[in-house]
Amino acid sequence: MAVMGVQLVVSLLTASIMQKMSPHCSFARWLLCNGSLYRYKHPSEEELCALAGKQKPKAKRDRRPNGVAEDKPLSVPKDINLHLETTPVTTVDALVLRYFLEYQWFVDFAVYSTLIYLFTEGYYCLVDPQKEMNVGILWCLLTVVFSFKIFFMVMHHYFRSEEGGERSVCLTFAFFFLLIAMVVLVVREDYLEFGLDSGLANVSDNLEIFLKQQGWEWTVPITKLTFKLGLVALCSFIGACLTFPGLRLAQTHLDALKMAADRPMTQILLHASFLAPLVVVLMWVKPISRDLLLHAPMGKQTVQIMSDSAYNSTRLWTIVALCLLRLAMTRHHLQAYLQLAERWVEQMKREAGRITALEIQRKVARIYCYITVVSLQYLGPIILTLHCTLLLKSLGDYSWGLFPEPTPVSPGVGAAPARPAVPSAEEEGGEDMQATVAQITGALGAILTPLFYRGLFAFLTCVDISSETRLMAKVLCWNSRDLSSAETPCWASQSLSVP
């Protein structure tokens, strides 16, 4: 342990536990399959025939002019008195669903990543943070990367779909978020206090000093423009990925409110989880947060209510509380989605004409088969926002409020980056490797300072939150149920055989 370090040992132990305990104990499986969620079973052909008042006919075949015989599908009136049976969602039923294993692995990895981060935060309360590298940051970065992978995996099917307009919707909102990101980056820091411009200026100055020390000439400073173009492209990608999660969350929010009509406390929590992202985004708008809320007039003078460090800690705690609140409302939203089967049946009863039994079975089964993707669409943005906030705290040298917040300094502006001593010929290969790693880490630490990380992850955190907020506001204004109910694709029911 002395050679490897406490954090690395804990990380390896956690990875081993995650691999061994996943088949037996899983937070993702408990969240979805603990019996509190119930699904609707599709009716059999015998039940539909009994409701229609006739016996199940024998297999009929229609003769076509070319001599080919085809089975005539069973059809029933749409206004039959159909009531779907309910059954709890169990692990045996969920294992056959598409993307269930990806959902379980991703959510469990995010849970273990958060636990390791909490351990490192407690460990740093006892040990000097400068002595060891924060392994919790690496786990959070991996979680962010895996979140983008999950979003891309789901969006990939929308682009392959030929029957709906999902591809056009994703491209439209990608272009929309591209314009929004360009507008946000143009706004001065007097209005949006991300600190991105000051962070990029700090990186540019440090990079210029570092390259001059290495004997390289520093030419045209295009770092800022290149980095901002990369941020705009990343925001466009995030906006396209969070298009359908935002639409789905807005629709399930409306349905969950109707389900909790007789529970006012649950409705308050649902409204709070829905409006909290808007409050968090406004905390970075300087005229509203700093100038209006933090300063109280007392006579002819203005008194600051809390210090800047306390306000920064309050923003971090607010985002963490938002993520925990949304996590607590997970089952309400998932159950509201499963209720789409019953609402579709009620809507079918009000229509005239006939419908085939196979179409009824597919409609009902497709909603349940899509529950794992809906869970990823709901939990993915929460996990992404939470771990971006944890990275903002650690890499930006913020504080949770327990200790004074250090002032971010730039080691490359005032002085040259510290170079480790050149290893002698008698040193071992392990010491040479450690010296090389220390040199690379020192160079990166001198260029990428906490001031830069503050601007970067504050911007990304607000992008993650506001991507869903704008879409949810639009759906609530339109109040269009078809936007989300029509989003369930055909491949959702391919993993479950319908008799």
From TrEMBL:
GO terms for biological process: cellular response to oxidative stress; cellular response to UV; negative regulation of intrinsic apoptotic signaling pathway in response to DNA damage; positive regulation of DNA repair; response to retinoic acid. GO terms for cellular component: membrane. The chain crosses the membrane at residues 136-156, 168-187, 225-247, 268-289, 367-392, 440-463. It is a multi-pass membrane protein. Its main location: membrane. Residues 1-23 form the signal peptide. It is found in: Membrane. The keyword Membrane applies. The keyword Amino-acid biosynthesis does not apply. InterPro entries: Transmembrane_161A/B (IPR019395). Keywords: Glycoprotein, Membrane, Signal, Transmembrane, Transmembrane helix. Belongs to the TMEM161 family. This is Transmembrane protein 161A.
